[in-house]
Amino acid sequence: MNPNYVVIVEEDINKLLVVDFIKPIEEATWLSQIVVVPKKNGKLNIYVDFRKLKSTTNKNLYLLHFMDEVINTIMAWSL
Length: 79
Hints:
Layout: H1 3-18, E1 33-38, E2 44-49, H2 51-56, H3 63-78
């Protein structure tokens, strides 16, 4: 990580800890990287890259089919 970003990232993490949005843990089974993106106005956006987590989660193969059923049911009610 860019050394200039470390202080800003630590401040944002501490803000999230104070409001209990995140909690410290002893040991993690998976980690996601932090991505810092500078904005045009000079501020920084801090994101979490969840691609590793997403690759390990189970996919619901029937999700779209189920959504089609829900939409069809709603459309039938509106008639």
